[in-house]
Design brief:
Radius of gyration: 24 Å
Number of domains: 3
CATH topology of the largest domain: Penicillin amidase (Acylase) alpha subunit, N-terminal domain
CATH architecture of the largest domain: Orthogonal Bundle
Shape: globular
Number of strands: 12
Length: 394
């Protein structure tokens, strides 16, 4: 029923995950996407500069002066010019599906992707964001029983633990090589680089609020990730979850650039007024009715599932990180004999009015990693109701 309803293609961009009572999981992208094939993107892009925009900014440019470059019109589509639902990616499996705002390609990496899908829906065979890779690694570790949690099933408690343990995948991928290079070349490093080595050598590779060194790693990796050929193991489309990985510290130019980024990161923190080993929750916090709330979570480029970003802020400043994007409404749902059992958080609270006591009232729960039970059954909703019901006419 859900899949049929989504076939109306009324959603502009959303990835949808669902599970049914028979034990099947579904990933679907049945959003509204222009019916433009890969061949059209290649033949109808007017200039190399226009072609580069697709990879750089996700912006396709077609030659509007040629009728052959008009969007296809398939009668099966919900609207003329859209890709019909039958040619959009859907995976139904008794195993699992996942997505972290990335391509449909690895919704289940053990299942071959649907062939012939337009690149406008998502790319295949290209490096995926670190959060996507982190999510898949967490799922695989859970099902293999190798992630440190009891058993090998992913129930509600396990999902909550996986989300809020704040593992920093970028740190896990590069820190072994950085530590080895720090030890091997200590005598040639500047004092700031040596300090960076000491701090990150003791970092726990998470983005928990008490993690010392997490801000230093963020500022280091913010620059180091863009160093040409920084990875020791380059991306391999046959191993998209495991690659790229490591730091290529054997190449002199890369080694020099990596250590420069490390020293610069120490200087960036000092300029902002923070020690190199400051706990993450000191600069990453919010004042709520006079109480400073230290926040856990990491940036997209760090590969932390619990995503907290300071959009519009290029690096840490004297006020720390102005978190304004990321984990907002968080919900975990399971079932008992009566029906759905849900727990969740609305991190910024129930009111957008900063003068309201409901503004950011759930942020302390988020900071403490405490989930709030959500009512579903009528009696539970009635018991938690505040104020008079508002009935919307439509």
């Amino acid at each position: 029923e859900l899949r049929a309803a989504m076939g109306n293609q009324g959603m502009p961009w959303i990835n949808t995950l669902a599970a049914d009572r028979d034990g099947n999981a579904m990933y679907a992208d049945l959003s509204a996407v222009p019916d433009v094939s890969a061949a059209m993107l290649q033949s109808c892009t007017p200039t190399p500069q226009a072609a580069a925009l697709l990879n750089a900014a996700g912006l396709p440019v077609l030659d509007g002066s040629r009728s052959a470059c008009a969007w296809n019109r398939d009668s099966a589509a919900a609207q003329p010019g859209l890709i019909p639902a039958a040619r959009m990616p859907v995976v139904v499996t008794p195993d699992y599906v996942q997505n972290s705002n990335d391509s449909f390609w690895l919704s289940n990496p053990d299942i071959a992707p649907m062939p012939g899908v337009s690149p406008l829906v998502g790319f295949i065979g290209t490096p995926q964001r670190l959060r996507t890779r982190s999510g898949i690694m967490e799922i695989r570790g859970r099902l293999a029983g190798t992630d440190g949690l009891p058993g090998n099933k992913m129930g509600a408690a396990e999902v909550q633990s996986v989300i809020f343990r704040d593992r920093n995948l970028a740190g896990m991928l590069v820190m072994d090589d950085l530590k080895a290079a720090c030890a091997a070349g200590a005598a040639t490093l500047t004092s700031e680089q040596q300090q960076g080595c000491r701090v990150l050598g003791s970092w726990d590779r998470t983005s928990n609020s008490a993690s010392r060194g997490a801000p230093l790693f963020r500022e280091f990796w913010r620059k180091a990730k863009d160093i040409p050929k920084v990875w020791r193991v380059p991306f391999d489309p046959a191993q998209p979850v495991a690659t790229p990985a490591g730091l290529d510290m054997a190449t002199p130019a890369t080694r020099e650039a990596v250590f420069k980024a490390l020293g610069d990161a120490v200087g960036t923190l000092r300029t902002a007024g923070f020690a190199a080993d400051v706990e993450l929750g000191v600069p990453q916090s919010r004042l709520v009715r006079g109480q400073k709330i230290a926040l856990h979570g990491g940036d997209e480029f760090e590969g932390v599932l619990n995503k907290l970003e300071s959009q519009g802020q290029s690096l840490i400043d004297p006020k720390g990180y102005n978190v304004n994007y990321g984990s907002s409404y968080i919900q975990v749902v399971t079932f008992d004999a009566r029906g759905p059992v849900a727990q969740g958080l609305l991190t910024y609270g129930q009111s957008s009015d900063l003068a309201s006591p409901r503004a950011y009232d759930q942020l302390p729960l988020f900071a403490a990693k405490q989930w709030h039970p959500l009512p579903f059954h009528p009696a539970d909703v009635q018991a938690q109701r505040e104020g008079k019901p508002v009935q919307l006419a439509y």
